[in-house]
Each structure stands twice: as structure tokens, then as C-alpha cells.
Design goal:
277 residues, alpha+beta, Ribosomal Protein S5, domain 2, cytoplasm, Ribosomal RNA-processing protein 42, exosome, mRNA 3'-UTR AU-rich region binding
Length: 277
């Protein structure tokens, strides 16, 4: 719990609504073989923190009064070297951990120095439930989505990522701003999207038999000739690393597959709810 040095005016806002700050939640990730300041753990922590703060409900739950607030520290330790890109694993385990997190019950009045009930059974869930025991809202999840050709793959393996043409980290959460309308396609909302540079972009292009002297071909005589011959290699089934950006239609298709009604995000969240219960 932290003490705010300067009391902030919250006129026009109900207590705890829209007064939370992004600095009230911090995340750190430790991966075997990586330093704490290496790009991978820092980037993973930034993506997961961005999704948690984008929904807005979490940081507002950390508000106590104008002088005090909770500060949430999320420390993740991977015990073994990940076999693939660990983003989905970290997101799902963080989701389950936050569902079981609790805050002590506040006994003092709103603007008094906080006094808490030491009875843990009286504590409240960080992500509260209604009278029927149903979650009012849930932590977001971040899914790793890749595309190769016309195929969209979720939670790809290392081998699949090696040939990916586009990779997205898509974060989704519950839509709590308004109740779901009968015609609404889904009760989920898109929180953030991050593009991830696939390792396939760093691989060299393949060499066709027609350009390989070891297989009876003839090597190109100039760089222009080599480029001209490589342009037609895609039809021959020779590997070419992806070039350029992602097509808008492909990005839209990948996002729709995640957030649509009955889509992958709903299946994942329903599965996590079953794990919790």
C-alpha cells in the first residue's frame, strides 16, 4: 500500500472510478538464460501490463482514498527455457493468478487513514463477483496469432513461427462499459494489438535448382539476374522470407477470428473459468 504525497481532486468522479493510475501496477518477468533488462522479458512484461491497464477496472480497484492506494506487483518466474514464444503461457497463468487475488476489507471511513480487517475470509476479490457468484469482469488475456498463406494459427510452435508471414499479440477483455445487446456479436472488446517480427524475416532465401551449380543449374551472372530469377521461385516452392508489411485484410481477419462470438478468445476464457471453478 502506498501513500500519495499530494491529494488529487476527484470532483466529478465517483470514488474509485477513473482515478487509478498506470503506475499502480508493475510486472517483471524472469526467463532462464536472459538478463532482466534483455529485450524479450522487457517486451513481454510491457505487453502484458499494457493489456491489464487498458481495461481500466484493475487500477481503479487499487484505489483506497485520496491519500492511499494499493500497488500491485506481478513477478513471473519461468522455471525452464520456453520451447516456444512464451506470451500465451504467461498471459493465461497471470489471468488465473489475478482471479484468486484478494484485497483486505477496508474498515475505516473513506478519507481516514486505512484500517483493514485481519479476517482473510472477509477479504474481497481483486476481480469482484456479484451476489450470484459470477465475475463482474475478468482479467484480459493475450493470444499469439500467426498467419502463413491463408492459414491462421493460434499459439504457434517454434517450427510454425519459423515460417510465419505475420505474427500478432492480441489482447482482449470483457466489455463492462455497457451490457451486451442482443444483436452484439460478442461481449469481448479489443484492448491492444502488438505486431511481433517473425524469425522468418531473418532467414536467407532458398536457392532453386536452376540457380545451383551443384545440381546442374547455372548461377546468375548479375545481381539483377538473381533478383529476376528469385521473383519466380515462389511458384517453384522455394522458400522466400516474407517481405513488406501485413495486409489490412489479413489483420482484420486475424482479429475477427479472436473476438467474434464463439471465437478463440471466448473458448479460452470459458476454459479458464472451468479451471478456476
Amino acid at each position: 500500500m502506498d501513500n500519495d504525497d499530494e491529494e488529487e481532486e476527484v470532483s466529478g468522479k465517483s470514488a474509485g472510478k477513473g482515478v487509478g493510475e498506470n503506475s499502480w501496477a508493475e510486472m517483471s518477468i524472469e526467463i532462464p538464460g536472459f538478463r532482466d533488462d534483455d529485450a524479450l522479458p522487457v517486451f513481454l512484461a510491457a505487453m502484458l501490463t499494457e493489456a491489464l491497464l487498458a481495461c481500466g477496472e484493475l487500477k481503479d480497484r487499487l484505489y483506497i482514498n485520496r491519500g492511499f492506494h494499493w500497488k500491485l506487483y506481478i513477478d513471473i518466474l519461468l522455471l525452464s527455457q520456453p520451447l516456444s514464444y512464451p506470451l500465451p503461457l504467461l498471459s493465461l497463468t497471470t489471468h488465473l493468478a489475478l482471479l484468486s487475488a484478494r484485497l483486505p476489507k477496508l474498515k475505516s471511513e473513506l478519507d481516514e487513514d486505512p484500517l483493514f480487517d485481519d479476517d482473510w475470509d472477509a477479504s474481497a476479490y481483486l476481480y469482484p463477483r456479484d451476489s450470484a457468484g459470477k465475475r463482474l469482469y475478468r482479467p484480459p488475456v493475450t493470444l499469439l496469432v500467426m498467419a502463413v498463406g491463408g492459414n491462421i494459427i493460434f499459439d504457434p510452435t517454434t517450427e510454425e513461427l519459423a515460417v510465419a508471414e505475420a505474427v500478432l499479440a492480441v489482447s482482449v477483455g470483457d466489455s463492462t462499459s455497457s451490457p451486451k445487446a442482443p444483436s452484439a456479436p460478442s461481449n469481448l472488446r479489443l484492448l491492444s494489438i502488438r505486431t511481433i517480427d517473425p524469425p522468418s524475416r531473418l532467414t536467407p532465401p532458398g536457392v532453386a535448382n536452376s540457380m545451383n551449380t551443384a545440381t546442374g543449374g547455372s548461377a546468375p551472372t548479375s545481381s539483377q539476374d538473381a533478383v529476376a530469377q528469385r521473383e519466380g521461385m515462389e511458384q517453384q516452392g522455394v522458400w522466400n522470407p516474407p517481405r513488406g508489411g501485413m495486409r489490412r485484410g489479413l489483420v482484420g481477419k486475424m482479429i475477427k477470428t479472436v473476438v467474434e462470438e464463439g471465437g478463440v478468445a471466448e473458448e479460452v476464457l470459458d476454459g479458464l473459468a472451468a479451471v478456476e471453478s
